Records
---
Amino acid sequence: MVLKNYILNIIILVTTTICIAQNPIEKEGWTLTFNDEFNDTVLDKSKWQTSFYWGGRNYENDIVYYGLDQFEFSDSSLLIKAEKKELSPSIPYVSGLLDGNKSFKQKYGYFEIRSKNPTGTGFWPAFWLVSTEQWPPEIDVFEFYTSHPANWSTSLHWKNKQEKNKRQTKNYKIDANSSTDFQIYAIEWTPKKISWYYNNKKFRTIKKGVKSMIFPMHIIISNAVSEMKGMNLDDAIFPNYFEIDYVRAYQKK
């Protein structure tokens, strides 16, 4: 038994070391400009507000309200809690979001999150960038509809030369269950293109519309409750959690 435990500890140590080595906080050629490792037991309110940048806590006709206290901490990660809690007949759910506009805005760079999605149907976790100057632009690093935990949705919103709002969305199937394991999602935004990364590997690049994205953007992390994409809320599990290990941003040196 002693030998078995020793071997198990060695395997855990090696696995942890490899994971850290593959994704250290410092990146060659990049300067860290913003991060939250969520190692404390309270939310850092110098970095985050719990409402949208315009002050709202829900969209018009939305079924979810983003509350002040929907956050828990465990094992050096943040959990955004979604609950079935009726605030009014039209708003039967409460969840949480983080908006970083008051502490951090950046034009171009590398933006990264390591996270694990809620389980089961009925949830719409997202990691996205948006400008406070106008909408669009918006970059959706990821959106998931959790009834399909391996389907990753990526989107770009911009204004064309005629000032019309344009959008390009593309979905990908990842090789893991985003609700049971932590995954790393990121984008690299340059003046000419945006590339999406999954577990440090590039898989999509878009150039269309990128030149019009001239405003600095900030980070939003949200855990919506939704019936989109055919998700059945009658089968949803509450409370449910969107777990974030860290979020980081970089600029080229």
Note: Residues 2-21 have pLDDT under 50 and may be disordered.
---
Amino acid sequence: MENKRELSFSLWYLIIPVFFGLTIWTVYWMELETGWYLNHLGIYPRHIKGLPGIVLSPFIHSSVEHLYHNTIPLMVLSTALFYFYRAIAWKVMWWGLVLSGVLTWIFARPAWHIGASGVIYMLVTFIFFKGLFAGNYRLMALSLLVVFLYGSMVWYVLPVDDKISWEGHLGGAIAGFVLSLFFKKEVLQPVRYRWEQEDYKAEEDPFMRHFDEEGNFIEELPEDRSELEDEENRELKVTYHYRERGSKGEDG
């Protein structure tokens, strides 16, 4: 339980998000070099040909601008996920990717839906709601930070732009919320102070013992005073050890 409460840094929490970012850029670079564009591997709703896109679409982007807008949020949010939710991070990434893709495939408009934005929306909603549900002050602070950084993204789960797959955003947001409800364990536990524990006894608390029955603070307890007096009255005992001096021949 203590390991779940304490946070420790590992270089992998940076390597993994960087790997995600490099992967999507590498795929786009290969498209430019080969001239073989992979939009047909995206999600095409309610068609068999669109099923592979449930897993593959987050790796495919239409332009450098599209890549740029997705890379930084993906790396920042995945870093937060793997650092604060290390025990379930891979499960969240995998099931979030699949669930957001399935939802997009079910209710999106007929078109090729590509990009990692669905995963990004999944991460935003998961981190936000999970921090609120967990009751841990560090996770709640992370939730507020996510709102501060990416709160404006909420508008893009609505059909504000025909060129944007708002259905993918909405599917990712729903997936993140569902996963925040599903994964109830293996997160940082709420901090419980000594006086909040079931076996707490106020009369045994060194601090609470300084208050009398009326709530007045007693700076010096009687037992502390007696111990101090005993220490002051204690006589210093000095013990001398003598060694008989031997003859000259015995002295070295």
Note: Residues 12-34 form the longest helix (23 residues).
---
Amino acid sequence: MKKLSKHITLLIFFLSVISMMSCAGDEIKPEVDLTLEEENMPVQESWDSKVIFTEEGKLQGVLYSDHMREYKEPKEKLLDGVKIIFYNKEGKPTSQLTAKKGKIDELTQDMYAIDSVVAINDSSHVKLETDELMWRKKDEKIVTDKFVRITSDEEIIEGYGFESDQQIKNYVIRNVTYQTITQKKKNAK
């Protein structure tokens, strides 16, 4: 009986070792973080993007972005490293805008430029600087209620509240806080 008991003990020991060896081969599964909500995640993401805007087949603008994230709710695209080139009805570039960040409202197609915004008219070289700007698709106007600085060959104007066509040719500053004639204009007289 002692011999049989030794064999059973040995068999149980052997089975235990085999069982432990098979468990050692199991991979450890990582924990899954379920705290992230699906609605906060982008549905699409891209780098070095190019988006072309047209109306009735005519080129209106080309947007370049270093990083673009598209969200389902709210329906928008968030951009990092933004450059937009606007075109006239003849398809020629008229102005360009750069900013550190941007946003496109997918429902209205309005575009927002945020942080270190600079817009320049290609022909007149009028330069607009501000911290935040919106391009409204419905009337193709550039607007902001923030501080703006306009620099041209003739003058420098600063103030709050701005509206312009997308070529930055016809513009209005609502509350002018500073205005001066530039040296180029003085020398021309």
Note: The CA atoms of residues 4 and 10 lie 10 Å apart.
---
Amino acid sequence: MRQTELHLTDEDRELIESCRAKGVRHAREVNRAHVLSALDRGIPEAWIMAVLGVGRTVIWRTRAAYLEGGAEFALHDVARSGKPRRYDTDVEAQLSALACSAPPTGARRWTIALLEQAAQAQAGIGPISRETVRRLLKKLPQAVAQADVVHRSIDGGVSATDVRSA
């Protein structure tokens, strides 16, 4: 097997040793630090794979990342974008305030369906589904802290106790 040499700078060695020795780190970061340290000392890839329990591609990618961007780039994962939140904290606050307000005329209590209709009628929220309303209320304990805020309705809504336990 072909072994590409890797020589770390003194600063990178210190960073890698501190990553290996102290602090709370992700297992991937510690493994990458071990891989870089072993490659710097000239340990064969087969031994690294056997001792660390990693595959050959981990070693190759870690080496390539170090050569491309240095130790910091090789040790840490690149931030991933992820799916952006559709409803921000302002919408959560509006929904919480709506759930804590007085129910509409003709209803004794708020139901998820009533909250959905009222939220859609508000200017800042726009189209929102019943399930999204339920999930957002589940995350906001102040919205369901009172006993009579959201209750089960005949059409399958969720009660305050159901939201807390779900």
Note: The chain is about 55% helix and 0% strand.
